[in-house]
Amino acid sequence: MNRGRWSWVLWGALTVVAAALAFAWFAPSRDYLYVPNRATPVANKVAVPGEKPHTGPGGIYYVDVTIRRATWAETKLAFLRPDGATLVPRDEVVPPGSTFETEHQEGLQEMARSEQVAAAVALRAAGYDVKSTPKGALVEAVATDVPAARKLHSGDVIVAALGKPTKTPEQLRRVFLDVKPGADVDLRVRRGDKVSTVNVQTVESPREHGRAIIGIRVAQAANIKLPVKVDIDLGRVGGPSAGLPFALDVYQELGKNVDHGRRVVATGEIALDGSIGPIGGVKQKTYGARAAHADIFLVPGENAAEARRYAGNLRIVPVDSFQQALSALRTLSTE
Question: Are the CB atoms for 114 and 240 separated by under 8 Å?
Fold first, then answer.
């Protein structure tokens, strides 16, 4: 084989190798990235009868997180990831036996429940007669590595624990305050039309030493009848963490001065009693609030310490209830 032909063969082989390496470098991996999104105004996503147009300089903003597959390169080299992104193992995003689309559909259902609860809280605070009956703690997800995974399923409603009624998620949490990790607990669970007793072993919380948990994520199961129709539409955004900004914006659109001329980003799962629960993706949501040049970022109390690590000059305000959020915004407006 002459020299020229060897040269062509060599270049061809190098091209094939380079193409293969490039494909492997940018091919999707098994793991996922949580990527920040800039916070977005809620007002144009919410419609309330008789709403008052917002003309001030501020506004209520929600913030969400993009979850996408990481490339192989992004799993190996952190500097290739978007600013503020976090690499997350696949099993934390898509539990074994599930799919990404299934998890997303469950997130959309969580969002729909959050919208209704947020509207009920805001309307009640504004003086409307809201009919709501709490029915228990709705199981939204069960960790795959806890004993409860063999006993509980998404869609179950826990109506009692250790003989005490649990009509709200907060009541369920309070029951476990005196339980030691590893102890067994009896739960009364409604599944469809049937109610039965389920014995579940607790585990220790990975976030709080000595705290017993079941290893589930719960939301409010309730019958809610709103006196007026409230439309909230975030499209394909899922999850319950926009409950607090929804409630704040509905309240503002009813003519209340909530933002006091400030750009307020908020996040937090809201319950029928107005309490605010912790959420995930705090790092990314803090980045998203900063990107929107927020004046204030309202976060659940349990998430405040993490948010402050990434806040820079952004003011983090921890809140544990809807009324506390309103009070904090009023107080800050006079500073």
Answer: yes
Note the pLDDT tens digit of each residue in 216-227: 888 888 888 988
Closest CA to 219 of 159, 175, 270: 270
- 315 φ/ψ angles, rounded to the nearest 5 degrees: -80, 120
| Element spanning 316, H or E | strand 315-319
Q: Cα(203)–Cα(201) distance, rounded to whole angstroms? A: 7
Q: Are 92 and 218 contacting, i.e. CB atoms less than 8 angstroms apart?
A: no
Q: Looking at the structure, tell me whether residues 147 and 62 fall in a common domain.
A: no
User: Cα dist. 189→183, 235, 326 in Å?
Assistant: 18, 32, 35
What range defines the domain where residue 176 resides?
132-222
Q: Domain boundary residue among 177, 195, 222?
A: 222
Closest CA to 62 of 43, 40, 47: 40
What is the pTM (predicted TM-score) of this model? Answer: 0.80
CA-nearest of 157, 159, 167 to 134 is 167
Q: Is the pLDDT of residue 71 over 80?
A: yes
- Position 47 scores a pLDDT of 81
